[in-house]
Specification:
Number of helices: 17
Shape: elongated
Number of strands: 7
Low-confidence stretches: none
Radius of gyration: 27 Å
Mean pLDDT: 86
Length: 392
């Protein structure tokens, strides 16, 4: 059997082939996180050990990378009018949690449509894949003003394998962008062509996620989790910034600002990373991409947030064209804010301090005109700040 498995592994095509082996026994998140593949028992352990043995015998360029995945699907149905047995989808949730063979959690995969190539040694039917104990459906009768509902939950662990030489690519496809870029970071140094390849793949995946969420918004009108586009974590942004600095290609930095920066969830946490990019690369090359990038996609990141984050970057920079352009951008955001919101902003003093100490006359004039037009009762805090600064 080991020889046959090894031959099958040898025939797998780089960049295309992968498979998933559903586990026959039930496992908990705790057991997988605690023991990884050592938690496997019975026929699951036998099958996995056979795969491991076969994988050891193949050539290095043909070896497989194994992960443990928990496949979870939850859908809630509501009764459809007065027609008996007719239900519509109220909300749905599909997610895959990823683990290394050692049990390290790699987090949830991104929300995309995934198609696994399932091995089926037990010759199970599709319905058997997800029948009890792996799946269940519960129905509730009328509750007050609400009609009957049906709740279906399916969950099962699997061993997922793909060519080790394509580990980053498959990790990006099946798991998350964050895990993929962290995997790439470990493989440093990373050249320009390689980094561009995976940034392009990430851009494509983000577009796929956007399209999927748009489809779900049409179907599940009450589910607020589909309202906003996917966001990029602070850690992922920091990894990308590190790779970009080491790669040294200004074009890729522009690609980052144009396609990734708007999705960073907590921009204030990556201010120093952004400042390093601005200092390292020619502002004349990357500046346009940063200033014209869609700054935010999250409703929490309004003009106040953008102004505060931009000022933090300005504060981290030395005086020069980049600092002046970014300060002008921040003042532009301040100018567009309602007077009461600007006056109540905790960044008001910092805004004036930077404009008075580091800006040119044009930026100072723009901000001054904003306050000249303001109701005198509102502008009092700004006058106090201005007076305090002049006394220094």
């Amino acid at each position: 059997m080991g020889g046959e498995l090894a031959e099958a592994i040898e025939t797998m095509t780089s960049g295309h082939d992968s498979f998933a082996l559903l586990l026959a026994h039930e496992y908990t998140d705790r057991s997988i996180a605690g023991f990884g593949s050592r938690a496997l028992k019975g026929v699951d352990r036998e099958r996995f050990l056979a795969l491991e043995e076969a994988n050891r015998s193949v050539a290095a360029e043909k070896k497989l990378q194994f992960h443990i995945a928990k496949l979870h699907y939850h859908v809630n149905f509501y009764h459809f009018g007065s027609i008996l047995g007719r239900y519509g989808v109220e909300c749905r949730e599909e997610k895959v949690a990823w683990y290394t063979l050692g049990g390290e959690s790699l987090g949830l995969g991104d929300e995309v449509k995934l198609k696994f190539n399932f091995l089926n040694p037990a010759m199970e039917t599709q319905s058997q894949f997800w029948q009890k104990p792996y799946g269940s459906s519960d129905s509730n009768g009328y509750l007050g003003n609400e009609g009957p509902e049906k709740d279906s939950v399916y969950s099962r662990f699997a061993i997922v394998a793909w060519p080790a030489v394509d580990n980053v690519e498959f990790t990006m496809k099946f798991a998350s962008l964050g895990t993929a870029f962290e995997t790439l970071r470990v493989q440093r140094p990373v050249d320009t062509a390689t980094l561009l390849k995976f940034m392009d793949l990430a851009i494509t995946k983000l577009a796929d996620i956007d399209n999927l969420l748009a489809e779900r918004r049409k179907l599940d009108v009450w589910n607020g989790s589909y309202k906003f586009p996917p966001l990029i974590s602070t850690a992922t942004c920091q990894v990308l910034c590190q790779l970009l600095q080491e790669c040294g290609n200004s074009t890729l930095v522009s690609v980052f600002f144009s396609n990734f920066f708007s999705r960073v969830k907590e921009k204030h946490a990556v201010v120093l990373d952004i400042a390093k990019l601005v200092r390292k690369f020619a502002w004349g090359v990357i500046g346009k991409a940063l200033l014209e990038a869609p700054i935010c996609v999250d409703w929490n990141q309004d003009d106040i947030y953008v102004m505060q984050t931009t000022l933090a970057v300005v504060r981290a920079l030395e005086r020069g064209q980049a600092q002046q352009d970014l300060l002008s951008f921040a003042v532009g955001k301040a100018e567009s804010l309602p007077d009461d919101r600007l006056i109540s902003s905790r960044s008001l003093e910092e805004l004036w301090r930077l404009v008075l100490s580091d800006s040119d006359d044009g930026i100072l004039s723009t901000l001054s005109r904003k306050f000249e037009r303001m109701n005198p009762r509102l502008s009092a805090p700004a006058v106090e700040i201005f007076s305090r600064y002049l006394k220094r």
